[in-house]
Design a protein that fits this description.
Layout lengths: L1 H14 L6 E8 L2 E6 L7 H10 L8 E5 L5 H9 L4 E6 L2 H13 L6 E5 L14 E6 L16 H6 L6 H11 E11 L4 H10 L2 E10 L8 E8 L7 E6 L1 E3 L2 E2 L1 H7 L1
Parallel strand pairs: 3-4, 3-6, 4-5, 6-7, 8-10
Antiparallel strand pairs: 1-2, 7-9, 8-9, 11-12
Amino acid sequence: MVTSFFLRYYTLMNKIELDSDEKIYDLHIPKLKIIQSEKSFKYGIDAILLSDYAKKSIDEQKSVIDLGTGNGIIPIILSHITNSNKIIGLEIQQKSFEMAKKSIVLNNLENRIKVVHGDIKKVSNLFCKDSFDIVLSNPPYMKENSGRINKSSAKSIARHELLCNLNDVIKATSFLLKNDGMFYLIHRPNRMTEIFSLLDEYGLKIANLKYIHPFTDKEPTMVLINAIKTTTEINCIEETLVIYESINNYTEEIKKIYR
């Protein structure tokens, strides 16, 4: 069994050509790895938290799309923690798109995950309306004019709203979701007023919020949002999650998510 795994791994490596800036990273999930570049934005805890947050709504029958998938980290995690066989990642940056494709082949997930090279603002040219049960997004958190940025940098595009903004993401989500479909988003608490307004504008109702605090005595730095495409009024549930018990020491809940 072990021999056959390593044989397949080395066979795949002969098919996958890494660029000079790319490396294979172990995801510490059985047999799963990911290709990342020193020049591109690397995944962080927000991708882990968003994947874990959405997993309760995903089963074998659900069609899932990750908007702005980057190197494909969220679809790859979902392939392990859910049994969905239809997971799509949409990515506009060519470099990230190519890395995601290679990671899918590396992990032998071609039958479960597909990545599409395209623009969130043009989803109507890529997919049919009302065609997904679940939409996820871990979009850029910062507005285009916030701080000094290199507009040609892949890392800047991942952090700042240079190629898409919140309106683009939520508008695309409304187009893609079936009625009663679920939207999962991770973002910054200081954008909540804007997020509430846009969700309402595009026919999405918030069902659950989970504020992410770095420490118990610190203000939240991220918020997980679960919204539903529905006309029915929903009572929103608010929760909290704390990342660190002490410096460099995760809380038990975070350890459980990583396990």
